Amino acid sequence: MSTQLTGPEDLTAKARIRGAAFALVAERGVHATTVRAIAQRAGVSPALVIHHFGSKQGVIDAISTWIVEYLHRNTRELDRGGDPAQALQRRLVRFERMVAEVPLLGAYVRRMLLDGQPDGLDWFRRAVDLSAEELAHRERMGKARPSTDLRAEAAMLLILGFAPVLLGPLLEHALGLDFDDERSWTRWRDAESELLTSALYPGVAATDAP
Amino acid sequence: MSTQLTGPEDLTAKARIRGAAFALVAERGVHATTVRAIAQRAGVSPALVIHHFGSKQGVIDAISTWIVEYLHRNTRELDRGGDPAQALQRRLVRFERMVAEVPLLGAYVRRMLLDGQPDGLDWFRRAVDLSAEELAHRERMGKARPSTDLRAEAAMLLILGFAPVLLGPLLEHALGLDFDDERSWTRWRDAESELLTSALYPGVAATDAP
DNA sequence: CCCTATGCTGAACATCCGTTCAGCTGGCTG
DNA sequence: CAGCCAGCTGAACGGATGTTCAGCATAGGG
Question: Which of A11, A108, B47, B48 could form a disulfide with A26 if both were Cys (CB 3.0 to 4.6 A apart)?
């Protein structure tokens, strides 16, 4: 209970610095985030930022590994669940919830993935690995049409699932959505499901055919 | 013929500045592109950059409108082609060729779209408009299953088609592709076609079903 | 009690940024 | 030929940036 009654001023200065840097990078990007801005937002002096993390790059690296670990902690546990056929689906839903809970996580992940940082590239590759594994399982179960390029198709499914995060602003502008609103996610998920259903469940597609 | 025997040193200084700024923005982004770097790459003094474009923002705006016009000039003409049912397909192929011809165009468009610049947002929205129009036409022709959220599904088709540009580095790393190589594009297009065929052509899907 | 380690700061440093400005050039026009 | 003007430069400006450093307070162990 007491942990819920703590404000930002109760945190270590080092933790506040990390949090401030995370928010600023998510909002403005690495290059536009200055040591002085981090310090001001954390309520400390610029020198303390350097003192704790060695350099500006040290802060950037620290929050990068922090977020990567956070993401893995929250997604990896799902992989050994009971029904592997829906592992990817649960992964997406869990990710969706994390993005909703941690306000700037979506923006940060978008930057991590799209800035071409090695962390982002590796994380995406692992996600494709899992997606391909999942798709292969579906095929063995007869729930998906066999594909000649399984990995590429898995990447496509992943991209569509992550699109609200990866391409959030683009979609919000083009479709009039607002991904802070739960209904926008639902609308996207429904459309995704409808578009892919006949591909993944050919039997259903046949009955839907005019 | 003589136009093909001209090197960079034959261009106006203003044109060289624009070209240098375009390349640097594509490679590093707007914020990391400095006036001095532009000047050095163009072989002129930093002062001349300001002299011709007023300010750094002036250079950025100039290449932005330049590229937007270039893209429209090369894609808009396709829309009044004879067979509207394949307008989107031709648009994608044409875009693909443009990206192949102008080396850094893909990287620049990626930045334009993902940096959240208004130009990028509007351009993407127009592309979704066209994609939705195209999808509606397919539905009327009985070539696509009717969708309840046509615009969202059109956006998904567009995203998959543009993925090699939008998410180039991510896909290259995750799938071991190289979009400088024609075959990587082919592989992606083939997988895309296979994934979507049963959704767009339910009759074919039925025959493919096991 | 002293002494040391830790957390932290203010001031300063060199460097880079975008921009300004006086002045140089060469070719065109009167 | 004189005048002028567009193209172009080197040097400098004020400001912002990342980083350094000497020194402050304070808590804990000898």
Answer: A108
Name the CATH topology of A60-208: Tetracycline Repressor; domain 2 (1.10.357)
> DSSP for B46-59?
HHHHHHHHSSHHHH
The CATH 1.10.10.60 domain(s) of chain B lie at 11-54
**According to the 3-state scheme, what is the secondary structure of A154-191?**
HHHHHHHHHHHHHCHHHHHHHHCCCCCCHHHHHHHHHH
Our measurement of the distance from residue A56's CA atom to the centroid of its chain's CA atoms, rounded to an integer in Å, reads 24
- Fold entry, domain B63-208: Tetracycline Repressor; domain 2 (1.10.357)
3 state DSSP class of B142: coil
Asked if the C-beta of B163 comes within 8 angstroms of chain A's C-beta atoms, the answer is yes
Q: How many CB atoms lie within 10 A of CB B96?
A: 20
Among the listed ranges A75-84, B28-37, B148-157, which one has the minimum average pLDDT value?
A75-84
**Best mutation site among A115, A121, A198, A201 for testing chain B: the one with the most B CBs within 10 Å?**
A198
Where do the CATH 1.10.10.60 domains begin and end in chain A? 10-54
Q: Determine contact, residues A33/A25, Cβ cutoff 8 Å.
A: yes
Residue A31, number of CB atoms within 10 A of its CB: 13
In chain B, which residue's Cα lies nearest the Cα of A197? B199
Chain B interface, best mutation among A111, A140, A156, by max B CB count within 10 A: A156
Residues of chain A with CATH 1.10.357: 60-208
Instruction: Collapse the DSSP code of B6 into the 3-class scheme (helix H, G, I; strand E, B; otherwise coil) and give the result.
Output: coil
Burial level of B74, CB count in 10 A (0-12/13-18/19+)? Answer: middle
The superfamily in CATH containing domain A10-54 is: Homeodomain-like (1.10.10.60)
Average pLDDT value for residue range B160-177: 90
Question: Which CATH fold would you assign to the domain B11-54?
Answer: Arc Repressor Mutant, subunit A (1.10.10)
Give me the mean pLDDT over the A169-196 stretch.
87
